[in-house]
From TrEMBL:
<keyword id="KW-0998">Cell outer membrane</keyword>
<dbReference type="InterPro" id="IPR032831">
    <property type="entry name" value="LptM_cons"/>
</dbReference>
<keyword id="KW-0732">Signal</keyword>
<protein>
    <submittedName>
        <fullName>Putative lipoprotein</fullName>
    </submittedName>
</protein>
<dbReference type="Pfam" id="PF13627">
    <property type="entry name" value="LptM_cons"/>
</dbReference>
<keyword id="KW-0564">Palmitate</keyword>
<keyword id="KW-0449">Lipoprotein</keyword>
<dbReference type="GO" id="GO:0009279">
    <property type="term" value="C:cell outer membrane"/>
</dbReference>
<keyword id="KW-0472">Membrane</keyword>
Length: 39
């Protein structure tokens, strides 16, 4: 039912949401800064 592109976008959005929620909690601000640049 889902195309490969839809699945890929779903996974990417899930990863971005997980990074946005867990990043600031598990990493110091200095370590999280390079992650925001990669996004």
């Amino acid at each position: 039912m889902f195309s490969r592109r839809n699945i890929t976008m779903f996974i990417l959005l899930g990863l971005l949401a997980a990074c946005g929620q867990k990043g600031p909690l598990y990493l110091p601000e200095e370590d999280a800064s390079h992650i925001t640049i990669e996004d």
